[in-house]
Write a structure and sequence with these properties.
The complex is a heterodimer of chains A (about 260) and B (about 270).
Chain A (H helix, E strand, L loop, with lengths): L5 E11 L4 E12 L4 E5 L6 H9 L6 E6 L10 E4 L11 H7 L6 H14 L15 H14 L4 E5 L7 H17 L3 E6 L2 H7 L2 E6 L4 E7 L15 H19 L11
Parallel strand pairs in A: 3-7, 3-8, 5-6, 6-7
Antiparallel strand pairs in A: 1-2, 1-4, 8-9
Chain B lengths: L17 H25 L8 H14 L1 H33 L1 H16 L6 H8 L3 H25 L3 H9 L4 H38 L4 H11 L3 H29 L1 H4 L4
Classes of the chains: A alpha/beta (about 260), B mainly alpha (about 270).
GO biological process, one term (chain B): transmembrane transport
Family (chain B): Belongs to the binding-protein-dependent transport system permease family.
Subcellular location (chain B): Cell membrane
Chain lengths: ~260, ~270
């Protein structure tokens, strides 16, 4: 058997004070193969982001083990992360934002690499612009360029397109798939959106809230590449979509912390 | 929330252009000089010298070299004290903000010291260091360092946790995070601290020159004030005001240069 690229075994992680602890993740086990695109889908509070931060090496588990390439994860070591709110450095130009994410390279080399990846996402003209001068879609492409420039073998994406409008979001999904086809990496992608999950994933990991745990894993059978035809027209798409939506709906309605609790 | 989400291009430009502003400021200066002239003509016993008399006194002091000498003495005291305050205040404030337990331990005492009138220490400083430039520079330093420490501290405490997490995710070292994320983020606070420090430092320069060996602009201020040479006295007051304007405007220009990212228009 091929060893997993990312492996979580019996992982639990809590937050909060000693008096009022909350369990973000409980007994989560997951193996992700090299080159696989796994989408973590679930309602708020299901620990999706916590799982990504554990895999990124930003936090450590309270119990259980996390390994990337068989080792405990180290931030930036072959891993790059894309965040929902972009997290661009407002006082750095687009080019320097990308170059900042390459601490292992020399200054000149980092800038050269940054310019290459800016051109890859179509931002060459804006290399010397500050983030405040860019539109939302451009900021997201910049954040993506920053992550890709590190040439990661593992890309962690935390609802990266959630703050974009519907059209930008679909175009970014296609752009991401094109970029990943050119330079494959393992992807762990967090989203609230059933459609986004179905369009991007090789496998969907459905998570349930409070405490966060894995409810179901579903292989997505649609052929790749998916950008040259409308995956949503496939008959299986509607079936899978309805199944996932019903599971999510039940989770939200049965979650005492949800605004929609008991409204089914 | 990352600050990258603020509305773009919302500058802090004054209405109208820079030229309009310059004209308005010159007009206001003319108004002030007119008021000064009216006061000099109407206040009895020549307590307020006329602008013309003051200009002549300035030319006189300059040609005798007394203004330059005093200016040099004062700037040496002011510069030494202020630079030392910057060199100590920024690292100390940053350390207090970065190492939370250290900051929490000492901030109470720093606040207490900042609230104590620093002139209270002058007799002690004179006993320790005498009446020379060292004692004067320490008096300037003590006044200027407090706002620099406290504002750097506040700026580092207000750091953006989201940006720091992003930086950590790239594998950036703590030093790289401090230089590229925390300190630039603290810049607006830092500039406030420097401006306050520069202002208090100038006040303390004059205080030091009055209380220790009487030298510099503060010394001349006392000399001319006590001997009712009001034209000369006004020259010194105006010289001090000009130092203050030059230093604070210089800081403002540096700040504007470093925060172009906030005011830049969309291309």
């Amino acid at each position: 058997m091929i060893p997993a690229h990312v492996l979580l075994s019996g992982v639990s992680r809590g937050f909060g004070t000693a008096k009022a602890p909350t369990l973000a993740l409980s007994q989560v086990s997951l193996a992700v193969a090299r080159g696989e695109v796994v989408v973590l889908l679930g309602p708020s509070g299901c620990g999706k982001t916590t799982l990504l931060r554990l895999v990124a090496g930003l936090i450590r588990p309270d119990a259980g083990g996390v390994t990337v390439d068989g080792q405990p994860p180290q931030p930036g070591d072959g891993t790059a992360m894309v965040f929902q709110s972009f997290r661009l450095i407002p006082w750095k130009t687009a080019r320097d934002n990308v170059a900042f994410a390459l601490p292992r390279l020399g200054r000149a080399e980092a800038r050269e690499r940054a310019e290459h990846y800016l051109s890859l996402v179509g931002l060459s003209r804006f290399a010397k612009s500050w983030p405040a001068q860019l539109s939302g879609g451009m900021r997201q492409r910049l954040a993506l360029a920053r992550a890709l420039a590190a040439e990661p073998t593992l890309l962690l994406m935390d609802e990266p397109f959630a703050s974009l409008d519907a059209q930008s979001r679909e175009l970014m999904q296609i752009e991401l798939m094109r970029l990943m086809a050119a330079r494959p990496a393992t992807v762990l992608f967090v989203t609230h959106s059933v459609d986004e999950a179905l369009i991007l994933a090789d496998r969907i990991v459905l998570m349930s809230p409070r405490p966060g745990r894995i409810a179901e894993e579903i292989a997505v059978p649609f052929p790749r590449p998916r950008w040259n035809h409308d995956t949503r027209a496939l008959p299986d798409y509607a079936l899978l979509r309805r199944h996932l939506w019903e599971r999510l709906r039940d989770m939200v309605l049965n979650d005492p912390a949800s605004d929609f609790h008991g409204r089914g | 929330m990352a600050r990258s989400d603020t509305a773009p291009g919302r500058g802090r430009r004054p209405p109208g252009g820079a030229a309009t502003l310059t004209v308005l400021r010159l007009g206001f200066l003319a108004l002030l000089i007119l008021l000064w002239w009216l006061a000099s003509a109407n206040v009895p016993r020549g307590i307020i010298p006329s602008p013309a008399a003051t200009t002549m006194a300035a030319a006189q002091l300059w040609s005798e070299g007394r203004l330059q000498t005093a200016l040099g003495q004062s700037l040496a005291v002011y510069g030494t004290g202020l630079l030392a305050a910057i060199a100590v205040g920024i690292p100390l404030g940053a350390l207090m903000g970065a190492v939370r337990i250290f900051g929490r331990t000492v901030d109470l005492f720093v606040f207490a010291l900042a609230a104590t009138p620093r002139v209270a220490f002058i007799p002690l400083i004179i006993l320790l260091l005498g009446l020379g430039i060292e004692a004067k520079a320490v008096i300037v330093f003590l006044g200027a360092v407090m706002p620099i420490i406290l504002n750097t501290y506040a700026g580092v405490l207000a750091r953006d946790a989201d940006l720091i997490e992003m930086a950590r995710s790239t594998g950036a070292s703590p030093v790289r995070i401090a230089i590229h994320i925390v300190l630039p983020g603290a810049l607006p606070f830092l500039v406030v601290g420097l401006r306050l420090g520069a202002t208090i430092g100038l006040i303390n320069t004059v205080v030091a020159e009055l209380y220790t060996a009487v030298t510099g602009l503060g010394g001349l201020l006392a000399l001319y004030g006590n001997t009712f040479r009001m034209a000369e006295y006004f020259v010194i007051v105006l010289a001090l005001a000009m130092i203050g304007v030059i230093v604070t405007e210089g800081l403002r220009l540096i700040e504007a240069r470093l925060s172009r990212w906030q005011t830049a228009e969309r291309p």
